[in-house]
Amino acid sequence: MATIELEAVTKVYPNGVQAVHQLDMQVGEAEFLVLVGPSGCGKTTVLRMVAGLERLTSGSIRIGGRDVSNVPPKERDIAMVFQNYALYPHMTVAENIGFALKLRKVPKAEIGRRVRAAAGVLDLLPYLDRRPAQLSGGQRQRVAMGRAMVRNPSAFLMDEPLSNLDAKLRVQMRAELSQLQRRLGVATMYVTHDQTEAMTMGDRVAVMRSGQLQQCDAPQALYDRPINLFVAAFMGSPSMNLFEAVVGPGGSTLHVGDQEIAVPDSATNRSLPKYAGKKVAFGLRPEDLHLTPRDGTASGLKGTVDLVEALGPEKLLYVRIEATRVMVEDAVSVEGEAPGPLHLDSSSASPADENLPQPVVPGGSATETLVVLRAPSSLDVRTGDRVEVAMDMESAHYFDLDSGMRID
User: Fold this and answer.
1) Are 118 and 97 in contact (CB under 8 A)?
2) How far apart are CA 83 and CA 31, in angstroms?
3) Do 218 and 158 sit in the same domain of this protein?
4) pTM across the whole model
5) Which of 96, 148, 157, 339 is 20 to 30 A away from residue 2, measured at CA?
6) 81 near 180, Cβ under 8 Å?
7) Is residue 320 part of a domain?
């Protein structure tokens, strides 16, 4: 078993675009590390540099302790699975899986043994004599995985391998792929733009933005304790509701629009009183908002139901309230698109910082905006209803509006 280590890895293209900036990262033995972020954040470039398909501008990459920064791809002992299955249409499943071994002049008997072993793990034994056109999308993806497996690589690199599958099959393949990786026990780097896929598959998840690593942690830790506004907005489906608020004296209240919200003593951050009289961003997950308070300490904002989405076991309610939503640049994921004015806006960037990520753009004057909350399917609520949104302030997250960093 081997590890993958990246130290101060930087990639600058000839046109001056910096795709990756001073990236430090390690994938442990048998670990499943997921790289996630919006399109253009540099995650695929990182994978291609590890594979040797892109040259590093600076820094180093080690696989199994060996520096491979300038080693050709074929000598790095890695196997890569792409978004495009790239199967040979004229070859059978068995021939596709064993093709790389054939090029290496591995004896036929050994090729047959490895192919059948991989096909057995992937439930492909009944299809070894079929051609790709006779397979489903999920079966083709398994063939691509089998082709990588037979090489017994030190590391797996996967670039959005499930993105071409339909939603139902993608969910099934997520589980199968996770189980397979744990069975093989090989260090794996997996790239996706789908944060739901990242949360369900990774031992750890590395969130990237504009070529820089934002946070790398266990999926639940990212969800429960995002380090900055970008991670807070990006991770979660639906996204965290983020608002501007003015901190009251002693950090015991927040002023949102024309309303005052009490901050429970147990939830008052030690650093929050330092922001008295200043604007901060505070956030609540959809499950931390309710139409009726759970206890007497909950605070609420009056609003109007704009949309009700029935999802079977629950409903998602979109409620229009008087508040200013914090807009986080780039923080929209495929599965986690947030309602309201969450869009690209780099107007706050100074000329010297125009190539660096700008964490937050304050949202101007207080206006109506949408919040999303989860509700039980039995709740009788309709579009147009006037409601009061209760906030579980024990679960609130606080962020500095200038730096975008978590207030701790």
Assistant:
1) yes
2) 21
3) yes
4) 0.83
5) 96
6) no
7) yes
